[in-house]
Design brief:
This protein is α/β, with parallel strands linked by helices. It has eight helices and five strands; from the N terminus they run βαβααβααβααβα.
Length: 197
């Protein structure tokens, strides 16, 4: 059995992560791969604490966010990610620990320490795609969907998030310009995927 692959999609809301995950899933399935998709924070107890607070406009303290997200990710790794990889599936994730590095790092937490704490238990991705578009364009897209902004979706904060994403330097990290046509972005992603098939 071929080993599974962990593929992560990162970026601020509005960059098209869900769309690109859906297109990549179709592509991989046509190649005969078994694919599972998921997202973080999950809808589990700890992820929902973070989601509910953000949706209310009142974020948890950064320390509470960090602890909730670590617990949420640990459950996700144990219940879905590791079993999927062990079965030879491709796991496509909408956010993973680089999100935590960027978002909690933008509040002043130590980015390298966040990475260290996650990598104690969370497997590194085979590839992580940072879908990079200007923050104002991302916010415009979110608003065009008719959704209100949550507590994370403030321009100044997202600029800080984007700066951290832009400074990341891991061997599996790939910056993908995502402000063009959907299929152009997908072609860039598939080029990277084809290299690790």
């Amino acid at each position: 059995m071929e080993p599974g692959k962990l593929i992560v999609f990162e970026g601020v809301d509005g960059t098209g992560k869900s769309t690109q995950i859906g297109l990549l899933k179709q592509y991989l399935e046509k190649l005969g791969k078994k694919v599972v998709t998921s997202f973080e924070p999950t809808r589990g107890e700890w992820g929902m604490r973070v989601r509910a607070a953000a949706a209310s406009g009142q974020r948890l303290s950064v320390q509470e966010e960090v602890e909730c997200l670590l617990r949420d990710r640990r459950e996700h790794v144990e219940r879905l990610i590791l079993p999927a990889l062990a079965e030879g599936q491709w796991a496509l994730l909408d956010r993973y620990y680089p999100s935590m590095m960027a978002y909690q790092g933008a509040t002043g937490e130590d980015v390298s320490e966040i990475r260290r704490r996650n990598e104690e238990f969370a497997p590194a991705p085979d590839l992580a795609f940072w879908l990079d578009i200007p923050v104002q364009e991302a916010l415009r897209r979110v608003q065009s969907r008719g959704q209100g902004r949550d507590a994370f979706e403030q321009a100044d904060f997202l600029q800080a998030v984007a700066r951290i994403y832009g400074a990341m330097d891991m061997p599996w990290w790939r910056r993908i310009p995502a402000d063009g046509e959907v299929q152009e972005t997908q072609a860039l992603i598939r080029r990277e995927i084809d290299a690790c098939l």
